[in-house]
Structures are given as structure tokens and as C-alpha cells.
Amino acid sequence: MKKILDLISEEVEKAFAEAGYDADLGRVTLSNRPDLCEYQCNGAMAGAKKYHKAPLTIAQDVAAKLGGSSVLSEVSAAAPGFLNMKVKESFVGQYLRDMAASEKFGLEMPEKPMKVIIDYGGPNIAKPLHVGHLRPAIIGESVKRIYRYAGHDIIGDIHMGDWGLPMGLIITELRKRQPDLIYFDDSYEGEYPADAPFTISELEEIYPTASARSKEDEAYKADAMEATYKLQSGVRGYRALWKHIMDVSVADLKKNYNDLDVEFDLWKGESDVHEIIPDMVDRMKKDGFAYESDGAWVVDVKEETDTKEMPPCMILKSDGAALYNTTDLATIEDRMKTYHPDRLIYVTDKRQDLYFEQIFRCARKTKLVNEDTELIHIGFGTMNGKDGKPFKTREGGVMRLENLIAEINEEMLRKIRDNAETKGYAVDDAEAEATAKVVGLAAIKYGDLSNQASKDYIFDMDRFTSFEGDTGPYILYTIVRIKSILGKYEEQGGKLTDIVIGEAQNESEKALMLELAKANAQLEAACEEIAPHRICAYIYDIANAFNRFYHETKILTEEDDAVRSGWIALLSLTVKLLEQCIDLLGFSAPDRM
To answer: At the top level of CATH, which class does the domain 4-87 belong to?
Structure first.
């Protein structure tokens, strides 16, 4: 289904051609003066030089050709050469009826869908998720949903930090505490226990303890490095312990990500490419890409056009150990061979921009990717507290993600109960708690996604949980209000089937209709620009347009059945579109609030 702007442009382009001018001059845009008109065309000014005419004259010529348009109700030429336009109510009504009858509201599917892998999440095993994990999870999940909705084949990979020295530290600390565990008996040849010798709580205490000790005790750190080597070399007991660490940690990660309504198609980590690293490095050496520098092996990724220093990409340290660089490059190789993606997207802190520029250049230079493979880094900004500094607990530490979610849910529960008390109705505790979780998640996700990903933002609990303004709860409150109207319509004997959107009866209804008509253009742009904030801005405009229409129109008490049912059909389309959009953002709406 064509975008509404394209249809209007076709009408104006035809008029330009009929008036003797280049049809390409007839491109239409949204009006930047909505007090004067709904759409505008500036082509007359662009054509003035070519046709040696005053732009106003050209605009007047075109306006005359649009006098009998079936699309436009008003067309006027304004100095110095603008074409100001309003569309016919009948045209908008038909466009929305077509939207309502179309799959995905008329969003056109790509002729050649892309295969995309998105790398987001990036938690480290044996460490609890904290607020720093919030943005990659929220942004990555939304981008994945947007791409999938737009018709592309996208795979989400969590890419865990599950290899290297942190694992060696945990194993070393376990050995200090429980030296008699059979995992440390080199002569043991039997089956290892199915249950881990630790809980997730113990594991989350073990790692920071071991990490701190290794910084003060050189012998302890040496033991940890040896344990890492044994693990990566395949020592049975160490591999069995590592599997326990993985199983316990992943189960906890899945619970936490589930609370965020974030899902991954792949639960892979650095360990999954450990075995392919030697061959990859050898090939880079053999092909002349990698060279030795101070004992380490590096790949030069400088380009002649660089205006800033670009350090070489190190693929092996001087002791022969792999780095994050190495595992990320091996992961790219593995993804290309296994999935053949057209595009790889990474969602991490924007402070890693230089790192990913090095990795991408190295992957291209060493031919790990095809020439046309797109490598994209979505670098996100910092979530800050009201003091403008990275968000911390009241005690100054990094807040656990589950604690932040709990605080938001408690605040939403308080507001729901206060609202019920103010309006004088009873609220069921279980229902209130369930609703608080749904609305709390919307507050968190919308509060994050409504900002452009690359920008820092202030996490403001009071603002994010407000039912007014540009917030998740406001969007949900609008959806619930529409659902309530539709429910009352059915209680009055009306049916939500076999009703059709009519022509706008008033200005606020037409304004809402024109907002809805932007749907496929907005959804397409959100995908092309990889910009969830575009959807947030769009649904905020829809919510505002609906609420204006609602306050100015007596919907359920309208005596004309045809007009009333047309309004109900319009509301039905509005709520379906809003619910689809918030699903793309990664949250849902309750039935009541």
C-alpha cells in the first residue's frame, strides 16, 4: 500500500506536468505551517530558474490544474511560491479504510528481505545484571522487533562474556574454598554431579571476591591464569565446573531478561568460537594481514583518509592469549559461515565506537565478511541520575537491574492505588500488582526509547511514571481509555464487526485520521534509520490527537448511528495501531488502569 504522501505527491506531480512543468517538482511534504494547511509543495521555487518564471506564477498555474482534484479539497498559491493544500475528507477516509483492511496497516514488505544478526545484551557470566545492561537490552529488543515486523529475517544473539580470566578466577576461588571437590581430582574418571556445588547468590559473591583478591595477590592471579589455561585446554573437571557456572548463570539471566520482556534467539558466548580462533589467526598471518609488534600480533587498519589516529587491531597478546578483539572477529567469521547475514548490528555503549571501527575494518581487510555485508554499531548514551552522572544507588554503587525494576513497579503500584482511592473505587491487590508490572515496564522502556539512542538521558522516576506528558503510562492510559469506549459501545449493543470508518465530521477527527495515515511511512522510517524513538514520537502524536478528539466529541451519545459507528471504527483502528507500535517497543497494555 502506497504511503499517503506518495499518493498526494502523484496528484501534484500530474498537475505540474499538465501545466507544462517537470513532474518531479511536485513532491509534497507535511506542512511546516499546520495553522495554514495540511501539506505543502515547494517545487515552484525550484523550477523558477529553469523556466525563467516567477515561482508564484508557476504555483498559480499548478493550483489551477488541481481545481477538480479528487484528492485535494483546497489548493492555494502563496508568496513567494508555496503550494498550500488540504486533503479531502473522502480521500482520507478511504485511505484509512484501506489501511484497516490491509495486513500490517498497509506496510509494504521488502522485495528482497535482509538476513540480519543483532548482537545485544552482552552480559558477563556469574555477574548480576545492573542498570548498565538496561539500554542494550531495551534498544536491541526493539530494533529486532521492528526489523522482523518490516519483513526482514533477523536473529538476536545475547553474546555472553563466558570465557577467559573471569572463569579462571571463579574456579580458583572455588578451589580455595572447597579443595576436596572432585572437579579438582585429576585422577577422577567418573561422571560429575548434575547439580552445581553453588547457588547463583554464592556465585555472584565469589566472582567479585576473587577479582579483588587477584589485584592484591600476584600468586592468586597466577593461579587464576593457570585455571583459565586448563579450562581452555579442555581439562575435564574444569570444563564440568564451567558448565555448572553457565547453567546457573543462564537460568538467572533468562529470569531477569524475561522480566524485561526481552528474548534472544541465540544464547551464544565467546566460548562458542574458542576452537576456531587458531585457524583464523594462522590464516591472517599466512595471508600477510597480521604482523608481530612488540611480541603481539596485530592487523593494521589505518586508512589514507583518516584524520585521527587509528591504532592497529591486536589479535593476540604477547603471551599468545586471545582478546575480546579476537573473539569478536571469530564470532563474525562464525556468523558469516553459519547464517550468511547481509547486515550485522551491534548494540553497545557509544564509548566503544573506536573499538568497533577497528573490528569492522579488520573484518573487512581480512575478508571475514563479504564486500556488501553491512557492519553497524549502534552506540548508545549513558543513563544518568538527576545529578547528570551515571545512575547509581543511594549508597553510590551500581544498581542491580532487578532492584531498579522493583522500584519502578512499587512506584506504579502506589500511583494505581492512589488513583483508585481518589476516584473512589476498590482495586484488587493482585490485579493492581499485575497492572503495576505492565505499566512499570512501559515506563522504563518508553523512557529509554523515546530518546535517540546515541544521546545520554536522565532517569527521572517521577517523570517516567507520570500519567501525563510524553511517557509510557500516558500512552497506555490512552489505549485503556479507547478500550473502555469500545467496551461500552458493545455493552450498548453495538458490534465491532461490519463497521467502517467514515468521513471526518470535525477538525479534531480529521487531525487524528491524518496522524493514523502516517503509519506505514513512520514504521518504514523507524526500520531504515534503526530508530525506535521515531515510533515513540509517532504514538505520542497519535495519543495527543486522539485525546483532543475524545474531549471535543461526544462519541457514545451521538444520535446518528452511522456517524457513531464510523467513530468507533476509527477508534478500533487507532487502538490496534497503538498496540502494534508498543509491541515493537517491547511492552504491552493492560485492559484496565
So the answer is: alpha beta
